[in-house]
Design goal:
Radius of gyration: 18 Å
Strand content: 5-15%
Helix content: 25-40%
Number of domains: 1
Number of helices: 10
Structural class: alpha/beta
Strand order of the largest sheet: 3-4-5-6-7-8-9-10
CATH topology: TIM Barrel
Length: about 280
């Protein structure tokens, strides 16, 4: 799994195994209320220069993201929009119907990146059926790339045991306090691009002394250090914010580098302390 080198900008992209090129930094809209707030956040992100927007059927704001993209004046082909299949829609026919519903809600044509949101399912067989549905949707041109979210190494191994297409992306909680070297190695081995949600720990660890020290040494914010740490591991970052100034601040993570020793120091913070769901509990 390649790690970004050289100067990065909001237009810098990484090519996934399925050919879709996605920006290194995007905006997530989890828990951003449907309606004006989501439309405003997405519109401002696009105005600043972001070209990756991440939503999901469960968030209830797909239509607002789609509206912001259409109203932005940014060429449709320049923006990568991700949405996701919720676990209550597992199964071949339900997954196809859910994808069609999401495509209609977004109103942007084929979905750029469609992920299985969560491995929770009544049975592993239904998970397999969902993946087959996504594979068929991609081959039919209904989605450009497919992947998963919240999949552990165990879930990925199960999927690869029957998949015709290897996931382009695995979107997981990823920050120094939830750093899983085994998952990083496995993803690299199979050319699965990791993508980080909650990279800023939902604000719960921004006062950690090591993070503050490294941030001060670089004359950067702790948020920028957390985002940069993920980038140094070759992970696409999708922090959430509804504030214009934070959008610009987060983009500043593209402008500097962490040393290998700083990355190692931050790696050592790994404790498994999550701020979101724990997918390891899913059979």
């Amino acid at each position: 799994m390649s790690v970004p080198s050289g100067k990065l900008t909001l237009s810098s992209r990484v090519r996934t195994s399925q050919g879709l090129e996605i920006p290194w930094l995007g905006l997530g809209v989890y828990q951003t209320p449907p309606g004006e707030e989501t439309r405003r956040a997405a519109a401002e992100a696009l105005r600043v220069g972001y070209r990756l927007l991440d939503t999901a059927s469960m968030y209830g704001n797909e239509a607002d993201v789609g509206e912001a993209v259409r109203a932005s004046g940014v060429p449709r082909g320049d923006v990568v929009v991700t949405t996701k299949l919720w676990y209550t829609d597992h199964g071949y026919d339900p997954a196809r119907a859910a994808a069609q519903k999401s495509e209609a809600a977004l109103g942007l044509g084929p979905i750029d990146l469609y992920l299985i949101h969560w491995p929770r399912a009544p049975s592993p067989e239904l998970r397999q059926q969902s993946w087959r549905a996504l594979e068929d949707l991609q081959q039919e041109g209904r989605v450009r790339a497919i992947g998963v979210s919240n999949y552990t190494v165990r879930h990925l191994k199960e999927l690869l045991g029957h998949a015709r297409i290897v996931p382009a992306v695995d979107q997981v909680e990823f920050h120094p306090f939830v750093y899983d070297p085994e998952l990083v190695r496995f993803a690299k081995e199979h050319e699965i691009r990791l993508e980080a949600y909650s990279p800023l720990t939902r604000g719960r660890r921004l006062d950690h002394p090591l993070l503050r020290r490294i941030a001060d040494e670089h004359h950067r914010s702790v948020a920028q250090v957390l985002i940069r740490w993920g980038l140094e591991h070759g992970v696409v970052e999708i922090p959430k914010t509804v504030h214009a100034e934070r959008l610009r601040e987060n983009a500043g993570a593209l402008e500097f580098r962490l040393s290998s020793s700083e990355v190692a120091e931050l790696d050592a913070l790994a404790s498994g302390t999550r701020v979101a769901w724990d997918p390891s509990e899913i059979p």
